[in-house]
Write a structure and sequence with these properties.
By secondary structure, the protein is an alpha/beta fold. The protein has two domains: about 70 residues, no CATH class; about 240 residues, 3-Layer(aba) Sandwich (Rossmann fold), CATH 3.40.50.1110. Helix content is about 45%, strand content about 15%. It contains 13 helices and eleven strands. The strands form four sheets. It has a five-stranded parallel beta sheet with strand order 6-5-7-10-11, sandwiched between helices. Strands 1-2 form a two-stranded antiparallel sheet. The longest helix is centred in the first third of the chain and has 31 residues. The protein is elongated, with a radius of gyration of 23 Å. The chain starts with a helix and ends with a helix.
Length: about 375
């Protein structure tokens, strides 16, 4: 019996030594750069959902002070929110430094990117201008961006406003009829045409405020996800193992690029309705009014379907760009910056996007920051 106990103790000691040596080897390999696996964050995963319909003014937003590790076939990124629910570092309501408020959807938020890889963080480093990131995923359109600016972002002292428009999604995200079908049982605001030629804000499914993102099924999945994240958050060895597994799978089969147009809608740079444009520009005009004399930059972001259609049509100044330029001509402080020509002219534009998802890769965010720094800040000097 003593021999058995001694054998179990020795075996346990060997296992502990092997695990300890593996952890040390992995830590040295990661910190030295020999293996480009992520280092552990040493943060306990949160149980609150990262996206949920929790804001009574604009719907979907992030829970404050939460951490979420987002893993997909071609990326792994850690998201953290500040006390205001922004995926950003802590920001004071007042600050002496020059600051820009940035409004937008998942591309602004940095879906699939680490925080310092996003174009807003790159712009901040390039220009010295703080870029307060108010982007969020969760089907977030121009109407919601106005409501977010009106009720939250405008409370922060700032010198300019950047509104990022994703033609691919913004028209459908603003569309009340699309929302009636695709966003049923979600608390969302819509701009509804009224008899005087303007729009009124209507909140759909008010009973579902604080429901989407917080259903029992989603909460259960979040708890399971949090438990699975514990090893990766606290171990170099686990992260090295996951990196090697992903590398082997990539070399065996590679990542197939995501279908750029799964719904067959074509590019919204060309395919949009007058009603959709009117609703978008109505929301943009509300933002311009709220901004006062501050400069307002309207930035158009292309996806792969937009690039493919632009190449097919041999046109890089499509109708949407011209319509928004006509809108901006009404104001002295509004300018349009379309990134479609810059991305269309690349030899390999697909490299600017995650192959498994369609959002920007780090290279895409870097290109956007470089272009915008030159167009906006080189001309204005902040």
């Amino acid at each position: 019996m003593r021999r058995l106990v001694r054998g179990v103790k020795n075996g346990f000691a060997i296992i502990v030594m092997v695990l300890l040596c593996t952890e040390i080897f992995s830590a040295v390999s990661v910190e030295s750069g020999a293996i480009p696996a992520p280092a552990p964050s040493y943060v306990m995963p949160g149980l609150d959902p990262f996206w949920a319909d929790i804001d009574p003014s604009f719907g979907v937003w992030h829970s404050p002070n939460v951490t979420y590790i987002h893993k997909a076939g071609c990326f792994r990124a850690t998201y953290r929110t500040n006390a205001h629910g922004m995926r950003d570092r802590e920001r004071a309501l007042d600050a002496p430094a020059p600051r820009a408020v940035v409004l937008g959807d998942s591309f602004v938020e940095g879906f699939g990117l680490e925080r310092d890889e996003r174009f807003t963080d790159r712009l901040e480093r390039k220009t010295g201008v703080e870029h307060l990131n108010f982007g969020t995923a969760g089907d977030f359109g121009t109407v919601q961006e106005w409501l977010l600016y009106d009720t939250l972002a405008s409370r922060f002292r700032h010198d300019r406003v950047m509104v990022v428009i994703l033609p691919r999604n913004d028209f459908v995200d603003n569309d009340p009829e699309f929302g009636r079908v695709s966003h049923a049982q979600r608390y969302r605001p819509y701009a509804i045409a009224n008899a005087s030629g303007g729009y009124d804000i209507e909140y759909r499914d008010k009973a579902h405020l604080n429901v989407w993102g917080r259903t029992e099924d989603r909460m259960r999945k979040q708890r399971l996800r949090a438990m699975r994240q514990v090893p990766t958050n606290y171990s170099y060895a686990v992260n090295v193992f996951n990196y090697m597994k992903k590398l082997i799978a990539f070399r065996a089969g590679g990542d197939a690029p995501v279908d750029p147009d799964p719904e067959g809608r074509g590019s919204a740079y060309w395919n949009y309705t007058r009603d959709g444009l009117d609703r978008m520009t109505w929301a943009l005009e509300r933002i311009v009014e709220k901004a006062g004399e501050r400069p307002v930059d309207l930035v158009l972001l292309p996806m792969m379907i937009d690039i493919l259609d632009a190449r097919k049509k041999k046109e890089t100044r499509p109708p949407l760009t011209r319509d928004l330029e006509t809108f901006s001509d009404r104001f002295d402080n509004v300018r349009v910056h379309d990134l479609l020509p810059d991305f269309t002219g690349l030899n390999d534009p697909q490299a600017m996007y995650h192959p498994c998802d369609g959002h920007w890769s780090p290279q895409g965010a870097a290109l956007a920051a470089e272009v915008l720094a030159g167009r906006i800040y080189a001309r204005t000097g902040n």
